[in-house]
């Protein structure tokens, strides 16, 4: 068997294992979905009226705020589900089964690749779930063309690939499941200091650069532009892609280096 | 001489300042059971981890299943099966799914995989529990599943790291039966244990590992010959009788605290009679007499620093 066939075969076996875990124990994924869904409902129904005053230069109402909020929350959903990745990787590493995998003549990367593909699929499903709720409470993406839809989907998938590799690295360096969920918290906090809920212009001057250049804001602005037909700004598009590719490569190198280290 | 299944020469491993394996040599002939015996922390698990390609050695020549684990770990992995000290089963999925996972990772066809899984589950008495999550299994069942999973790939060399630690006596005997069966199939077994009776029972050759070094190596019989012969132990309840016995018998090792004493003896009828005659002549009656023949325990304690020897006195007579 060639090493490529071996890699594909072993990775798909590992993917099946991870999907089986997710199907057998959906509570982790569902718990993680709770945060973006609760925030969506909270910000739309409780804060929506007040928040809408801060966008679009006044005169906006609750339905405008839904449109503003949803792209950010879709990306937050990606961030939130990747916490599950860090937790399940850390959980795996604490089990003897990983030591078994390491002593078998299988493709070494397949353990991580299985986790990554499984997580990306899960976060796409989660995004779809949150998207359906968003549509149910009045979100409409009427101006988007088919290529824009495809681009939006591609961005979400790429963003989740990037965060997943980072989360895998976080899971690998965490000594316990609890530590993993703590280490991965930035993935759910970062959207709070992005343009997901309020425009960056509304933040204090010294803080704006942080909010503007962190990975979430360019991705949110790009997704917002793709779904709502608003101006993306060339800088945001490229920044989003650069962040995604950069984090994917960084996360991949970090995670595989950690996995290749001798276990204690 | 045939090529050994496992060989190590000058194997060294340190974690930071701590030397775990300080240059050990060992050879395991194909089709035999080799037991690495040692107290906790002696380095047994580290030795298994290195030989099974899980961690890399700092120094030493290694040979496992015809390959060098450092140069060609995948070839070694294809020849071996490992059952570690901590259960290596996926608790979130069922026993049967664990077996199918192993079949897939061993690249068996779906039909062969299903058949092998079913046969092994049957052989290890797990058919009834096959559809239950492995996390619900008892300790003994988990170990059986663990070994069944190891056997899916039909390895010629199997590493078992403390396979019976934490098992109840019944499961332990079951496990011994399983190991004997493996050997009868021609498999080479590398077994670590902290139980002397287990090594005595199963192993063709035993190496005693202490503090990162091989303290002794040989068959159980050879090791038993390393320590001085057995002894007779007399115990008294009356301190006066005890003191009289110490005075009447020569070459005794007294233990004032427990009012007992030990006399070196091979345990033969003639030697026992000589002791009894002398006690009789001095009109001393012991409350208890036990004959102790050397076993692996003596070897173990004699070789591994001697702390905690149960019937050795802590202080000599005043």
UniProtKB/TrEMBL annotation, chain A:
The keyword Transport is assigned to this record: yes
Transmembrane segments: 25-45, 65-90, 111-137, 149-173, 185-207, 237-255
Molecular-function GO terms, alphabetical: ABC-type transporter activity
A Pfam short name: ABC2_membrane
GO biological process, alphabetically ordered: response to antibiotic
Record's keyword terms, sorted: Antibiotic resistance, Cell membrane, Membrane, Transmembrane, Transmembrane helix, Transport
Record carries keyword Ion transport: no
Record domain ABC transmembrane type-2: where: 27-262
GO CC, alphabetical: ATP-binding cassette (ABC) transporter complex
Subcellular location: Cell membrane; Membrane
Major location (coarse): membrane
Membrane topology: Multi-pass membrane protein
Family listed: Belongs to the ABC-2 integral membrane protein family.
Protein name, per record: Transport permease protein
From TrEMBL, chain B:
Enzyme Commission number, as recorded: 7.6.2.2
Single GO BP term: response to antibiotic
PROSITE patterns reported in the protein's UniProt record: ABC_TRANSPORTER_1, ABC_TRANSPORTER_2
Keywords: Antibiotic resistance, ATP-binding, Cell membrane, Membrane, Nucleotide-binding, Translocase, Transport
Gene Ontology terms, MF aspect: ABC-type xenobiotic transporter activity; ATP binding; ATP hydrolysis activity
Top EC class for this record: translocase
InterPro entries listed in its UniProt record: AAA+_ATPase (IPR003593), ABC_transporter-like_ATP-bd (IPR003439), ABC_transporter-like_CS (IPR017871), ABC_transporter_ATP-binding (IPR050763), P-loop_NTPase (IPR027417)
UniProt topology in membrane: Peripheral membrane protein
Keyword Methyltransferase: no
Pfam families: ABC_tran (PF00005)
Nucleotide-binding as UniProt keyword: yes
Chief localisation class: membrane
Domain ABC transporter: 6-236
GO cellular component: plasma membrane
Listed transmembrane segments: none
SMART domains named in the record: AAA
UniProt-annotated location(s): Cell membrane
Protein family per UniProt: Belongs to the ABC transporter superfamily. Drug exporter-1 (DrugE1) (TC 3.A.1.105) family.
Protein name (record): ABC-type xenobiotic transporter
Organism, scientific name: Embleya hyalina
